[in-house]
Structures are given as C-alpha cells and as structure tokens.
Design goal:
alpha+beta; Histidine-containing Protein, Chain: A; 4-stranded antiparallel sheet; 4 strands; 34% helix; globular
Length: 88
C-alpha cells in the first residue's frame, strides 16, 4: 500500500462535483483507494464516503491505494488536486 498527503486547494472544497470526479477517476483503477481525514477513513470509490469527509479548502487528506496499479492511481488522483479539480 502506498499513500500521499494532499491539500484541498479549490475554494469550495470537496463538494459534489469534485467528489464525483475523484470517485470516477479512482474507479478507473483496479487498486483499492481510500481517503483519510483526521481519524476518518472512507472508500475512495464511494461518492457518499468521499462527501462525508466534508473536506473544505485547506483540509489535508491522505490518499492511499493498494493493488497492481497503485502508483498510477495515486498519480492520477494527485493530478486532480494539483488542477484544483478543474474549478479555478
């Protein structure tokens, strides 16, 4: 299992549209994907789980992936954060 720590940079945080984009991207990979915030960990392929994190701008999340394509999954998901989920 590999993980990366990322910060929400888009102004509105991880609301419905970016959460859906995250889940859609995570679903492209065979690896299991999880997101952690503080002590709460959710399945990164579950829209309800991702939205339950209520991650606002500045929130630090740990994205972890476990499986044969974990490196590619983390790279692709980190790019979403870097692009601010194409919102700004």
């Amino acid at each position: 299992m590999k993980e990366v720590k990322l910060e929400i940079q888009n102004k509105l945080g991880l609301h419905a549209r970016p959460a859906a984009l995250f889940v859609k991207t995570a679903a492209k990979f065979k690896s299991d994907v999880f997101i952690s915030r503080d002590s709460q960990m959710v399945n990164g392929k579950s829209i309800m789980g991702v939205m339950m994190l209520a991650a606002e701008m500045g929130a630090e999340l740990v994205i972890s992936a476990n499986g044969e394509d974990e490196d590619a999954a983390l790279k692709s998901l980190a790019e979403l954060f870097d692009r601010k989920f194409d919102e700004d």
